[in-house]
Amino acid sequence: MLKNLVFALAVLLLPAMANAADVSGIPKIHDGDQVLIGRTRIRMAGIDAPGLDQLCLDPKGERWTCGVAARDELARHVGNKSWNCHLLRIDRFGRSVAKCEVDGEDVQQWMVKSGWALAYVQFSHAYDEDQKAARAAKLGMWQGAFIAPWDWRVRNKKTAILGTAKVPASAIAILLASASGPVAPSPECTIKGNVNRSGVCIYHKPTSRWYAKIKMTISKGTRWFCSVQEAEEAGCRETRR
């Protein structure tokens, strides 16, 4: 009797359990692969887009803020529409990794086939063909030269350069730099990062003692971060002073 009752309750709860992993609503777009829907921080599955601080080169070899462009193109395409995201897992930064759709369109696929994100092959090969098509058509980042977002977060002088444009000899120095000028790339990006004399990346929150003394310039040594998670994902640690 009790067993039958438990089974019946489980059957009744199945639809609710299935829908619990779905999040819907109009998002606040953080960057090309991260959005906020309600209180749920979502990292889009299967793709990796440039961060707001990442620089790329255009077909003429000029630097441009491809991370900001990726965010803006995503916002322009579906930013004012309701999204439906299906939760796959929680990552180590507490974000919900999810596949998102808008009016039946796979948002991740659109980002890759438009050249504003790469197929995140370390985790999925779902968008490999879309990436090949974007590269062939020289769309988005593929019109010039860039570093894969996952490489850029831990970049060094041996980092591979991707793209379809012929790049100048100075390309690697430009691509290793960030868009961290005196003004943050986005109002919510208030965490400062810099590299100390030992080559360690340190991040400073606005409440940190040395925050005001960190001068942000377009160089490899300084970066703006939009969250502690982003700073730590880039291999930085919090200042101890």
Description:
The chain is of the alpha+beta class. It has a domain at 180-241. Helix content is 26%, strand content 25%. The chain has seven helices and 17 strands. The strands form five sheets. Strands 1, 2, 3, 4, 8, 9 and 10 form a seven-stranded mixed beta sheet that branches. A four-stranded mixed beta sheet has the order 16-14-15-17. It is globular. The termini are far apart.
Secondary structure layout plus pairing:
Layout: H1 2-19, E1 22-25, E2 28-31, E3 34-37, E4 40-44, E5 47-48, E6 56-57, E7 63-64, H2 66-78, E8 83-90, E9 96-102, E10 105-106, H3 107-113, E11 118-119, H4 128-136, E12 145-146, H5 149-152, E13 162-163, H6 171-176, E14 191-195, E15 201-204, E16 222-225, H7 228-233, E17 237-238
Helix pairs in contact: 3-4
What would the keywords be for this entry?
single chain, seven-stranded mixed sheet, globular
Fraction of residues in helix:
25-40%
What would you call the shape?
Answer: globular
Strand residues, percent = 25-35%
For the secondary structure, the number of strands is: 17
Secondary structure class reads alpha+beta
> Regions with pLDDT < 50 over 5+ consecutive residues?
1-19
* Topology pattern, helix = H, strand = E: HEEEEEEEHEEEHEHEHEHEEEHE
- Helix tally? 7
Assembly form of the protein: single chain
- Gap between N and C termini, in Å? 63 Å
Rg, rounded, reads 20 Å
Q: What is the average per-residue confidence, as pLDDT, rounded to a whole number?
A: 84
Let me know the largest β-sheet.
7 strands, mixed
